[in-house]
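Tutorial, part two.
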Amino acid sequence: MPEKPSHSPSVPQPDAAPARQRLALKRPSAQAGDAPRAPVPGGSRSGARNAPPASQPSSGRPAFTPKPRGNTWSASSGGRPAAEPGMTRTAAGIPVRGNLPSAAGKEPSDTLRLNKRMADLGLCSRREADDWISKGWVRVNGQVAEMGLQVLPTDRIEVDRQAQGQQEQQVTILLNKPMGYVSGQAEDGHTPAVALINPRTHWREDTSRTRFTPGQLRGIAPCGRLDIDSVGLLVLTQDGRVARQLIGEDSTVDKEYLVRVIYGDVEQDVRSAFPEEQLALLNHGLSLDGQKLKPAKVDWQNPEQLRFVLNEGKKRQIRRMCELVGLKVVGLKRIRIGRITLGNLPVGEWRYLGANEKF
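Running the prediction step on this input gives:
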């Protein structure tokens, strides 16, 4: 069987040389009588970085390629530093790879907190990264990482296989939420939707081979809201990567809803009574909480029901949008999130997200 190439596909990289030149310009020159930098607890971390490659692509996103390394897998992004890079600390005591600029208390502009870097690379969520770092499962340039470490885009991040194994055991659950349940924490005496996750309510036609265990409820959380008086598809997950994809600041996953409405006293054939210019406003032009809403796709599904497709999720957004144009929502059902549809999942029952299913 032919050996797979060890290098990742060619992906445009940011120009590492100018960034290093900027850092070099800010490094203070050695002065007579300067005291040597104190070593970082945990072992020797001295040494200079290797020079960056002679040429790199000048644009594009950093490459991320998991590579087996014994009991670890790694993410490399750009030029490969020395095996034993130096480490210094900021004025606040935060460990930083490389030298600090001459201005006291300032950090290199291209450094990033390790947990955020790992989340940006799609390795895990920030919370999960902090858990792995605290367990000693993360290495940067071959050294066990400390909590709060700041890294450069060129630093090599390696994660122990134990973390990957833990991640593979995390589940994502799709629930057809009935009316009367809140999507998050219990409030005002109402039951949270997670209470419906048990062996009795597991859909018998679920094709997943995963079997339910109580441990699957540990740390599970809903990805987005679904009001107490709304029904339909609700995603609950233990996987921080899924949560970030669905409700992260940079999420682009859209969600589809069927919304039954009335217009003033009109309950039948609302479509013919509702002004076209108001429908245009629902698609684009409304604001909530002092912020302009992103463009939506809103059209008539039938004379009394609208179809909404949104890629943002403000609190009670659809109901409030409808109120702004004189409509009252009398029924709301979410039927799709990204590529995952509610399908034939019965009300009050749930199934696992399949291994081959992606949002």
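The mean pLDDT is 79. In part three we will examine how such features are distributed along the chain.
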